[in-house]
DNA sequence: ATTATTCTCACTATTTATGGGTATTTACTT
DNA sequence: AAGTAAATACCCATAAATAGTGAGAATAAT
């Protein structure tokens, strides 16, 4: 028997999902909450296997709820319900260790299947979601080929990104610090960024780290 | 009929894969190459639907081959063959727009299926691979919770990462630049990093950007 | 009500980074 | 042989960041 707690700011959604899950003998909706705060409260006293969590909620959104769960040391399998399919968002969820994420327009079968998987500690991300994650990862590249950086410049970017200053880089490469300075200037102008921060950003977005 | 070009630095692997693919009527191995450079040469004159590409090769590795393909404007569906299952690596592949990636110890069926999918322009990443990608994404978080940053500090980190300097941040937040300076100092010491570069790195690794 | 944290501001001093030049040597291309 | 790109090096000047120290005011927590 899988005990589920439903969290959504709309009672109709809660009722709808409840009625769907009622049909399944292996799942029991033990409680529900209309706010994140309420969910956290109930999770402290109520044994729950799967937390069915809406993302878009006023005041405390789903992500914040998960963060609080971590802070309080409450361990529960989380299945996120979301309407949109944003990649940046998905990334965050995965990084938070959320077990699963399905779109709100998923069918009854998908929902029940997902709850079962998540309750076993397995990961479930609907195809649309992973697809959008891949898409977002794809975007980043390209820039490094657009900008004509020399080998030496790439080398120096990496060293800058690893927190070395001009002198340290000069020592490591056995060249004058003046030369490193020149390279820095050229890099900044080639990348069209204002300062070190922009440089490190570029390094990150182009996997030079 | 799917035309395949096999690239691997071991002739035995090429022969092995060839013999597997021979059994399938819809796939034809048109040629093979033992080095990345040779593969690039052959791709210019030979019509190929799917490039079956080994990653670990001396001199020019698979990733570099894909980069060169982009540079030369050669468009071909790439299916990567890999032995290990490294996440950082997978990320790079996805970012390069590689259609698929399967482990060398995959079975015959998986391989043929993957080639078919990739030839249609669809994406195929074996489960192990995506799993490891998820794992790596999960690791990054935590740090932001470990370090006790205040709201203001997080706010300032974001502004620094977007290439604003101290004065610009002060203007934007309607506070003195001295205050921003103090925050910067506290942030650097809390994060235990040496300079701006380390700060921006932290921002990136913790999705504060 | 008291404590603790956070946010705020200031001063000095030093180190680093940035922006503007110029110039030489090497290696590769045509 | 001439031209070009890359790596090297130096100068000057200014802007910005880092380090150290101290301290008042607002807020949240107990």
Automatic annotation (TrEMBL), chains A, B:
This protein's UniProt keywords: DNA-binding, Phosphoprotein, Transcription, Transcription regulation
Q: Does the keyword Methyltransferase apply?
A: no
Where do the HTH luxR-type domain residues begin and end? 142-207
Q: Which residues carry this modification: 4-aspartylphosphate?
A: 54
Matching entries from Pfam families are given as: GerE (PF00196), Response_reg (PF00072)
Q: Which PANTHER family match?
A: NITRATE_NITRITE RESPONSE REGULATOR PROTEIN NARP, TWO-COMPONENT RESPONSE REGULATOR
Q: What is this protein called?
A: LuxR family transcriptional regulator
């Amino acid at each position: 028997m899988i005990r589920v707690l439903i969290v959504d700011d709309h009672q109709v959604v809660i009722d709808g999902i409840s009625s769907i899950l009622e049909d399944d003998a292996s799942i029991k909706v033990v409680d529900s909450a209309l706010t994140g705060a309420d969910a956290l409260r109930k999770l402290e006293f109520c044994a729950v296997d799967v937390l069915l969590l809406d993302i878009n909620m006023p005041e405390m959104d789903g992500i914040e709820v998960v963060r609080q769960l971590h802070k309080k040391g409450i361990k529960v399998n989380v299945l996120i319900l979301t309407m949109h399919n944003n990649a940046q968002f998905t990334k965050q969820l995965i990084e938070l260790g959320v077990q699963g994420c399905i779109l709100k327009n998923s069918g009854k079968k998908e929902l029940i299947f997902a709850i079962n998987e998540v309750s076993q500690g397995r990961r479930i991300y609907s195809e649309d979601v992973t697809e959008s994650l891949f898409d977002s990862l794809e975007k980043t590249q390209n820039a490094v080929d657009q900008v004509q950086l020399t080998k030496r410049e790439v080398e120096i970017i990496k060293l800058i990104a690893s927190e070395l200053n001009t002198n340290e880089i000069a020592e490591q490469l056995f060249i004058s610090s003046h030369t490193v300075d020149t390279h820095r200037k050229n890099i900044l102008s080639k990348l069209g960024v204002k300062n070190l921060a922009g440089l490190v950003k570029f390094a990150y977005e182009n996997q030079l780290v």
